[in-house]
Automatic annotation (TrEMBL):
Name of the protein described by the UniProt record: WD40-like beta-propeller protein
Ranges of the WD repeats in the UniProt entry: 56-89, 277-308, 318-350
Keywords: WD repeat
Coiled coil residues, start to end: none
InterPro entries per UniProt: WD40/YVTN_repeat-like_dom_sf, WD40_repeat_dom_sf, WD40_rpt
Domain of life: Bacteria
The keyword Repressor is assigned to this record: no
Pfam families: WD40
Top-level taxonomy: Bacteria, Bacillati, Cyanobacteriota, Cyanophyceae, Pleurocapsales
Length: 359
């Protein structure tokens, strides 16, 4: 299930492996080290200390989005049946009954394929066709409904400081003020439909990948964005590194089987320059920077999960999904990496002593 890099350095070693009934759609770590996973068969499971607990069995509609609240008290899942399910996770081991109530928001026939928790409070944003609803888990009420009007919701992302919620759709990214939802949104124009968006962890930059194979990067509040072109296909994933000393963080982008890592020049007028990472020979399905370093993980249909040292060269290739990987996620400390596969594989790797200090 794992390989060693060219210099013999083992960054991560296998810890656990299991299987769900079908394609793993999402994996997510809680702040307390619980791993949740969902599948196209409708499963939602929790992993803790080597055991799986099934919150939803196979046989229902596909679960397509999954996320823990910032404090780890709630797990939300949405999917093709239009339901948003929210479990209360109590502060005790699962084997001792660490699950509380389940709240179900029934929005059928709308398909819920995007959801995200606020980083600063227990408010959940989720897509409903051309709208986004915000549900407060503490009061168990919907506090607002935000219209995109001329487009289905294609992506949504909270600003890491909790001040704003960005929503992507046709021709724009709209950014709402989380302290006054009734204010008109701030508009970031995009060349065509914005398919995927991501905020930098310092809340200064927001990147958008458009239908026309273009990326725009905006310094929030500055009206003129940087524009990056020349990608071979639609932008599928965006991920930001940790902040760099005296500069913007790195931005990694996947398009088809390719990955480009963009670095901002010291002067704003000089824009961003990219280096291309070539190894995958089929579509990249997931891309994520380590939370505390420049180690970049990429997973693809070719069955390779690559760990790129300093987002430059391959340090290790992990395997274990015969027909390809579908998703991946780091835990909060970056000591564990989980990934799902097309055939239901669920795999966890843990940091190796030989891999410490990978930059």
């Amino acid at each position: 299930m794992s390989g060693v890099g060219a210099k013999g350095k083992v960054l991560f070693k296998p810890q656990w492996r299991g299987n769900l009934a079908e394609y793993v759609t999402q994996v997510a770590w809680s702040p307390d080290g619980l791993l949740a996973a969902s599948s196209a068969a409708g499963e939602v499971v929790l992993w803790q200390n080597g055991s799986l607990v099934f919150l939803l069995p196979a046989g229902l509609a596909s679960i397509d989005c999954l996320a823990f609240s910032a404090d780890g008290k709630f797990l939300a899942a949405g999917g093709q049946d239009g339901k948003v399910r929210v479990w209360s996770i109590l502060n005790s081991p699962l084997s001792q009954g660490g699950l509380g109530g389940i709240y179900t928001l029934d929005n059928a026939p709308q398909w819920v394929d995007k959801l995200s928790w606020s980083p600063t409070c227990n408010q959940l944003a989720f897509s409903l066709g051309r709208y986004v609803q915000i549900w407060d888990a503490d009061t168990q009420t919907v506090i607002t409904t935000l219209p995109f009007t001329n487009s289905s919701i294609l992506d949504l992302a909270w600003r890491p400081n909790g001040e704003n919620l960005a929503i992507a759709g046709k021709g724009a990214v709209k950014v709402w003020n989380a302290h006054n939802w009734s204010d008109d949104p701030y508009l970031i124009d995009t060349p065509s439909a914005s398919l995927v968006i991501a905020w930098s962890s310092d809340s200064k930059y927001i990147a958008s990948g458009s239908l026309e194979n273009i990326i725009t990067v905006s310094k929030y509040g500055v009206p003129t964005p940087w524009v990056m072109r020349g990608f071979p296909g639609k932008i599928s994933h965006l991920t930001w590194s940790q902040p760099l000393p005296n500069n913007a963080p790195l931005l990694a982008v996947s398009s088809r089987s390719g990955i480009a890592v963009w670095k901002k020049e010291a002067q704003d007028r000089d824009g961003w320059n990219a280096r291309v990472l070539n190894l995958h020979d089929s579509k990249v399905r997931a891309l994520a920077f380590h939370p505390h370093s420049l180690l970049l993980a990429s997973a693809a249909d070719d069955g390779c999960l690559c760990l790129w040292l300093k987002a430059k060269q391959v340090g290790q290739i992990l395997k274990g999904a015969r027909d390809g990987f579908s998703c991946l996620t780091w835990d909060r400390e970056g000591k564990h990496l989980a990934a799902g596969g097309h055939n239901g594989e669920l795999i966890i790797w843990s940091e190796s002593m030989r891999g410490q200090g990978f930059g």
